[in-house]
Amino acid sequence: MKRLSIIAIILASVAIAGEAFIFASRKEESEEMHTRAIRADYRIYAPSIPDTLTFCGERVPLNLFYVRESLDRELVSNMYYQSSTLFNIKRATRVFPTIERILKEEGVPQDMKYLCVIESGLQNATSPAGAQGYWQFMKTTGQKYGLEVSDEIDMRNDLEASTRAACRYLKDLKRRFGGWTEAAAAYNCGEGGLGKRLANQQQVSYYELLLNQETQRYVYRILALKIIMQHPQDYGFYVRRCDTYPELPSEEVKLEGQNVDLVDFAISHGTTYKMLRTYNPWLTSSTLKNKGSKTYTVRVPSKKGTEYNTIVKGKHDTTIIESI
Asked: Hey, which end of the chain has fewer CB within 10 Å, N or C?
């Protein structure tokens, strides 16, 4: 009996060992197959860094290792933050034509449109600190540069008005600091903040300054978005024209009087309150008290309406975008 028990134990041990061997073999085989599959089907590429680069016509010193590595960091971050960068490309076709026109009229380099990209993602965003709109103006700065900000009106959310204000601000910063690169940095950390650091560190260039983490990365983020959006296919973004967002055709009408019900106003102009606010995001209430009896110009959908097929010129254009 005792002999049988010993034999049973031995056989059980052999069986367990056999199963363990088979399981280990299967696991090893599975891991090997998994590794082969990754190698065959999955690729992560380091982004290409251009040999030369300028910002607003000013040379970026890529010969400095820390400049090159800082740019590389932002290229990697934005190349592999695919959803954000994809939306930037899609929105740019709607927003950039207006921004580009105003930059040209105001004498500001076209590269500054990429500052708007990193500030807001080309939409009316609100920051935790209270900055608002496409160009992320704080209330006091927006008012300083001519934007009306009140309980009923917030022109920081108007693309055209805020772009003109941003141009005036950037030109003032350029006059103070001497370069567009430094103007862009000051746009982020404030002219006082940048001026103090330039003086304390006895430097004149953004690239030679030790700054807070956000401003240290700021200009490189602009540069990275410029590179990717100007050469999207080189960084894995294949976006068809028909996938992008079109400009919204509109007509201008006058808004005047006191205690105007904007719901009624919208309906009387053949649209809805939702569309009135969509086309005029600077309106912040359903009623315009307008104690100063000002006259405003608002946009309403054109006679084409708001249906996709009526507002998209190239709705069937499958051409891949080469540059934004």
From this structure: N
Q: Which residue has the tokens 């080309």?
A: 122
Max intra-chain CA distance, the chain: 109
Residue 156 lies in a domain: yes
What one-character-per-residue DSSP string does 39-80 give? HHH----PPP--SS-EETTEEP-TTSHHHHHHHHHHHHHHHS
Block residue for tokens 């772009």:
163
pLDDT tens, residue order, the chain (324 aa) = 555 455 454 445 545 555 554 444 555 568 888 888 888 888 899 999 999 999 999 999 999 999 999 999 999 999 999 999 999 999 999 999 999 999 999 999 999 999 999 999 999 999 999 999 999 999 999 999 999 999 999 999 999 999 999 999 999 999 999 999 999 999 999 999 999 999 999 999 999 999 999 999 999 999 999 999 999 999 999 999 999 999 999 999 999 999 999 999 999 999 999 999 999 999 999 999 999 999 999 999 998 767 767 777 666 789 999 999
Cα Rg of the chain, angstroms: 29
The answer to whether residues 197 and 300 belong to one domain is: no
Within-domain flag for 321: no
Please tell me whether residues 181 and 218 are part of one structural domain.
yes
Give the residue numbers spanning the domain of 134: 54-239
Q: What's the CA gap between 11 and 23, in Å, rounded? A: 18
Whether residue 256 sits in one domain with residue 201: no
Do 145 and 191 belong to one domain?
Answer: yes
CA angle, corner 60, sides to 57 and 65, nearest 5?
175
Task: End-to-end CA distance of the chain: give it in Å, rounded.
Answer: 86
Bridge partners (DSSP) of residue 251 are: 300
Is 324 within a domain? no
| Residue 133, Ramachandran bin (φ over 0: left; ψ between -120 and 50: alpha; else beta) | left
Q: What is the tally of structural domains in the chain?
A: 2
Q: Which two tokens stand for residue 60?
A: 């970026």
164 lies in the same domain as 292: no
